[in-house]
Design brief:
single chain
């Protein structure tokens, strides 16, 4: 288990979630992410 890697992945996840939550519904739709699936999407792309 690599604590530094895990921490970076967690930090990237939190940043991704925050940035996606700030987007409008229409922008999320344009990039193919539903508001209810932000956490799931952020987990996938961040490696968390």
């Amino acid at each position: 288990m690599n604590i530094i890697k895990d921490y970076r992945n967690w930090r990237n996840y939190r940043r991704t979630v925050a940035e996606l939550r700030d987007l409008s519904d229409s922008t999320l739709k344009d990039i193919g992410v539903e508001r209810g699936a932000i956490s799931e999407y952020a987990r996938r792309v961040s490696g968390y």
